[in-house]
Description:
Layout: E1 4-11, E2 16-20, E3 26-33, E4 40-48, E5 59-60, E6 64-65, E7 72-73, E8 84-93, E9 105-109, E10 122-124, E11 137-144, E12 150-160, E13 162-167, E14 170-171, E15 188-194, E16 203-211, H1 213-216, E17 233-242, E18 247-251, E19 257-260, E20 263-267, E21 271-275, E22 294-298, E23 306-308, E24 314-320, E25 324-327, E26 333-350, E27 356-362, E28 382-386, E29 392-395, E30 402-410, E31 424-431, E32 437-441, H2 444-460, E33 461-462, E34 464-465, H3 478-491, H4 495-508, H5 534-546, H6 549-567, H7 601-622, H8 626-647, H9 659-667, H10 673-689, H11 701-709, H12 714-722, H13 729-734, H14 769-778, E35 780-782, E36 791-794, E37 805-811, E38 816-824, E39 827-834, E40 839-845, E41 853-854, E42 861-866, E43 870-875, E44 878-885, H15 900-903, H16 906-916, H17 920-926, H18 946-960
Parallel strand pairs: 2-9, 15-23, 21-28, 36-40
Antiparallel strand pairs: 1-3, 3-7, 4-5, 4-6, 4-8, 8-9, 10-22, 11-16, 11-19, 12-15, 12-17, 13-14, 13-16, 17-18, 19-22, 20-21, 24-31, 25-26, 26-29, 26-30, 26-31, 27-28, 27-30, 32-37, 33-34, 35-36, 37-38, 38-39, 39-44, 40-43, 41-44, 42-43
Amino acid sequence: MAELKATHLTAEYQRHLLGTDVAHPRTSWRLESDRQGTVQKAYRMQTAGENGSFDEPLWDSGRRESDENVLVPYVGPALSSRTRYLYRVKAWDNFGRESEWSEPAWWETAFFGAQEWEAQWISPSPESIDPQAEPAFLLRKPFSLKSAEIASARIYATAAGVYELYLNGEKVGDAVLAPGWTSYRLRQAYQTYDVTAQIREGGNAIGVMVAGGWYKGRLGWENKANHYGDRRSVLVQLHISYKDGTEEVIGSDPTWRASTGAIRFSEIYDGETYDARMEQTGWSEPGFDDSSWGIAERLELPLTHLVAQESVPIRVTQTLKPQAVIVTPSGDTLLDMGQNMVGRIRVTVTAPEGTVIKLTHAEVLDKDGNFYMGNIRTAKQLVTYIAKGLGTETYAPHFTFQGFRYVKVEGYPDQERGLSPEAFTGEVIHSDMERTGAFECSDEMVNQLQRNIVWGQRGNFLDVPTDCPQRDERLGWTGDAQVFAGTALFNYNGGPFFTKWLRDLKADQLADGQIPFVVPNIIQGYSSAAWGDAATVIPWALYMSLADKRILAEQYDSMKGWVDFIRSQGDTEHIWNTGFHFGDWLALDAKEGSYMGATPNHMVTAAYFALSTRIVRDAAGVLGLAEDAAYYGMLAERIAAAYRDEFITPNGRVAARTQTAHVLALVFDLAEPKDRARIARDLNDMILENDYHLTTGFVGTPYLCFALSDNGYHETAVKLLLQKTYPSWLYSVSKGATTIWEHWDGIKPDGSFWSDDMNSFNHYAYGAVGEWMYRKIAGLSPDAEQPGYKKVRIEPDFTGGRLSHARASYESMYGTVEAGWTFVDGQIEVEAVVPAGAAASILLRGAHADEVKASVKDEGILSITQEAEGVRVETGSGRYVFTIPRTESSYRTYSPEMRLSEVVQWETAKQILDRHAPGFADNLKHFAGLPLGAAANSPMGSVISQEQYEAISRELSQIRE
């Protein structure tokens, strides 16, 4: 029989979920099938308890008639804490096939309540170590097993600070910067470690290193520390299960011993100082003499706010070698990593005792080629290593991270004779999310832009979606995360990452619904439009991308609270006209000396009020809250009507002539249908008047290309993307950027800098264009009616002829989805890959049904219909290739003079062009549609005169009118 398999099992998005406190974990699996059009008709799931046997399963769902195989909750008997559960599934499909049982997968629970903690929060006693001392604390506890017959061993640990855990001289786990950063006052994560293999017969020892981290260290640009507390402490609980069924618990308590060691200083912003001469060799091993160490004491920190780790760990995910060693004009010796990265440098050295090596980290060189630290502000980004002089030594910092491409090296032995790149390794650090998306096209600079977007996300998704990873900030700005969420969820599976962060957002939200500027909140600023809307936009983005209904349910009160807060503000019910707002932050149409763009703030607040209200309406519908859906639906209509009354003139013009104002009216669906064409035309005119350059900031930029593509000006959007001169996405690429910049002109054409005060070169917000590249160029989107890629929309737009191919892939919860197109020999090939269990709706833009050639004509293709925009093909799962003729619409151009999408078909335009300027139409096509207005300065200037140009324009204008 043909093959059907259930594979890729996950629980709460993770293949190996070690240590969860989710009472009903949601499981997912993929179907693999060798037949197109495969649909799951039923499934059966079994869960085995602690004995691991499926012969007598803890729970058996039986055969369930359902096509669900994504985030299916476990609904068996209540789970026990600290227990591993195996699970497996089988499936039946629409062809009558039954799969074999899948390979078993597992999840493991941690604690389900604070009462299960026997350990105590401990810190070195002030009598032995100053609580404010800069060195990292070392705490240890020796112990002996009561039996050699070990069944399993687990450590549950966290810290008020950042910690590393050691057992018998070896580091436990591969995570760094644990426990991460949460809203510590209300929520703190603990980690679970399987240490069965590290436990030894006889004597053992646990050791913990702890530094201040986000808990106690300085955060923000105001040089403030101790945001959550002024003492570092740890909480550690080891459970050893013996084969005879007994258990032993060893927990942190005042019997532990405390000291300091080689880490003399460690701060998130400022780096780390490590004096290898002060290493306490063997300090985490049994038999170590700790008689000179001080004692620990108990701290009264809460246990009730502890939660099992929700997000994926922070890890070293890649290593890079320096690409060059540079000696600058000022005489500094630098390593060029070739990539603006986030992480740390591991250095290997053989040096005399006391040799001091300094590594200072920066992102860019100045226009003279010298090391530049101005934009780092007060962050030192300095790592200092002092050698112990005993052969080859290797070191990387423990409790800090840097954002950098260049590293200034001082004090390395024989440095004046040249550094060996082999002595240095860059270790890339970020939350270890699963990579899901890929995009590429025929323009290599756009491909570099995509790489820059991904690197920017990697560098800034470090347990919190930070704004920048290098200066004295690195905060979870809500506005940045909101505008980038759609792109982020293409590039990586952000389910666990955003779930954790949204819970922090909800925790830090005020009782009246206000949302902080940053989450976790350490600056006490609240409630700006487009920033606070992270409360609604991101949960909805997760639902669309991953079909995560639970996150909507969890966050619903927060979402509703934010909308209700907005409604309570101002002197009018439907226009939020009070309070501070960032507005169209960093837009280029800002007044001199201002960071805020020219789009009136109240237009931004009203637009986002409408957006968030609609999201709450839709979330209520998904959750079955009919009364709320009706209430917020009516409210959304009134907000939109108030917006039109206030900001759109009776003749259909947007009151503010800024690109962002027009973008919001279109993308947030605030204009009357009768006015959309005019608003879109005005937006397009503004782009052309600015010679295909944008002026948008944080609010307008993510939606600018959508506003153009969705309203007949896709070619303008593509030309914006391909623009290489300032301001544009490719301008930074042309200047050698390897990440996204905070400012369009972070480095000016003459090599000078925008400013020192706020000029990050790794700031992902403007990378939000990536979502449009996936959705509109490659044409890959989830269907809003069947989210999570249960149904895929593949609608590539290849009009304009400026790109010759594009392709995107996405690892959905159902499997790999692909969309791509290419121009081949006068034809267009459109390719689609749809995973088993999913379906697709494919638009072949500009095609006629009788011209479409399909690679397959079997059960996979469900229907082919002609629509106004082209041919619509509905398919089941499988791989499909469609070939259509490459028509003149592939070259179509949009400009103030021609506006072909609105006023005239290409054939009509060609007749006009041929009448006034024979041969010009062919040249227009050949040059991919340069606008007529650029003719005098284009290579086509020789084939069209000013008189011909004016005659063509007059005739097109008559048709338009």
